[in-house]
Amino acid sequence: MSTTQESLPRRTWEQYRSIPIIYRIAVAFVLGTALGAIAGERAAVLSPLGDLFLRLLEMLIIPLIVFTLLGGMRKLTPSKLGKVGGLTVALYAATTTIAALIGLAVANLFDPGTAVEFTGGEAQQAEPPSVSEVALGIVPENPLAAMVNGEILATIFVVIVFGLALTIVRESTTEEPIADAIDGFFAFIDAGTQALFTIVWGVMEYGVVGVFALMAAAIGTEGLGAIVQLGALVGVIAIGIAIHMTVTYLGVMTVGILGQSPLSFLNGAKDAMVTAFTIRSSSGTLPVTITDAETNLRIDESVYGFGLPLGATINMDGAAIRQAVTVVFAANMVGVSLGLGDQLIVLATVILISIGTAGVPGAGLIMLTVILNAVGLPLEIVGFVAGVDPILGRIATTNNVTGDLAVASVVGKWTDGIDLTEGVWADGSQASGDGEDSVAAGD
């Protein structure tokens, strides 16, 4: 065999790898969707390949939270942690409130559901956790069990407390062996973080196959009929989310606060956005979100290590828009007019229950039962709209992940925790500059 023949597979692989991963995943998404539409339920045979991709991402969630949080804690003094944490939580609360208001505004403007016939359905009423249950759930009885069970808020709490304690001991100790041991521990954390990023790279390479399989199986099994039947609901929610992303994230936060090109931000966040749309899970997307923050957006670990894991759990901007629109849709279906008082109840309920239900599987439908009950609408509507839950979940999750990165970027700007001269920012014109925005090169 000649040298040329031997090197052909290598050259082919290198050419394939030279294509940015986001474009390869996008092609896989389109091809998988087409195959699912053509093959129908037979495409479900590909489910194991897609499930493997999801498992690989889920495998990385807790290790990434532990390593990135601990790595970030080394750079945080208690006072700075309070500043980063306070700003992050305040921004998440603010953007969720804005999202709910946008959802109610577009719902009242377009009035979806007036021409839809309600044929009934079955729904299971679910109660959200109480405030005390949410608060107590943050503090685990068994830290290791919390990590094993994937309890993200509890894991974040344990890691922050432990990391902060290490930082305090390191600053106050006069014993050299203890100081050296803590420095060595943090060096191990840094090495582990780099190793995890290498694993994320490998998982995303497989993601081309995983996304293809996920979309083929999902479209083949669920079909496109439900999306067409409830197109008005999907369309209005998509409009609300588009407005929120364009005005709040790109306009106010990227241009107004960061002073950067929106295209640069989107270029830096695109990997996480596509992954979120594909797998419908903010937590599952977390490995990719962290990589985008580190590599593309150049956010400091002390900021993203705290903000992104927290955002994957409590940031529900997309769900807020989705629930606000769906409640108006439901009221129109049954001929009920929601007054100002009812809509204020919807607004308050969406905001207050977002943290308590964020980590629950099927959280969107659970939130909907609570809100419908709060304004006296029939819970059977949940069964009616459940047919488009897959597409609504994808849209909302994409919004949530984009919001996580936007908030982390702004907090980074306010705490000197982002480098706006490198990564995607380096090739993008500043919003206040000459106006010639450009998109940075891909991976």
Automatic annotation (TrEMBL):
<dbReference type="GO" id="GO:0046942">
    <property type="term" value="P:carboxylic acid transport"/>
</dbReference>
<dbReference type="GO" id="GO:0005886">
    <property type="term" value="C:plasma membrane"/>
</dbReference>
<keyword id="KW-1003">Cell membrane</keyword>
<keyword id="KW-0813">Transport</keyword>
<keyword id="KW-1133">Transmembrane helix</keyword>
<dbReference type="GO" id="GO:0015293">
    <property type="term" value="F:symporter activity"/>
</dbReference>
<feature type="transmembrane region" description="Helical">
    <location>
        <begin position="21"/>
        <end position="40"/>
    </location>
</feature>
<feature type="transmembrane region" description="Helical">
    <location>
        <begin position="232"/>
        <end position="258"/>
    </location>
</feature>
<keyword id="KW-0769">Symport</keyword>
<feature type="transmembrane region" description="Helical">
    <location>
        <begin position="84"/>
        <end position="110"/>
    </location>
</feature>
<feature type="transmembrane region" description="Helical">
    <location>
        <begin position="52"/>
        <end position="72"/>
    </location>
</feature>
<dbReference type="InterPro" id="IPR001991">
    <property type="entry name" value="Na-dicarboxylate_symporter"/>
</dbReference>
<feature type="transmembrane region" description="Helical">
    <location>
        <begin position="152"/>
        <end position="169"/>
    </location>
</feature>
<feature type="transmembrane region" description="Helical">
    <location>
        <begin position="344"/>
        <end position="372"/>
    </location>
</feature>
<keyword id="KW-0812">Transmembrane</keyword>
<keyword id="KW-0472">Membrane</keyword>
<dbReference type="Pfam" id="PF00375">
    <property type="entry name" value="SDF"/>
</dbReference>
<protein>
    <submittedName>
        <fullName>Dicarboxylate/amino acid:cation symporter</fullName>
    </submittedName>
</protein>
<dbReference type="InterPro" id="IPR036458">
    <property type="entry name" value="Na:dicarbo_symporter_sf"/>
</dbReference>
<feature type="transmembrane region" description="Helical">
    <location>
        <begin position="206"/>
        <end position="225"/>
    </location>
</feature>
<dbReference type="InterPro" id="IPR018107">
    <property type="entry name" value="Na-dicarboxylate_symporter_CS"/>
</dbReference>
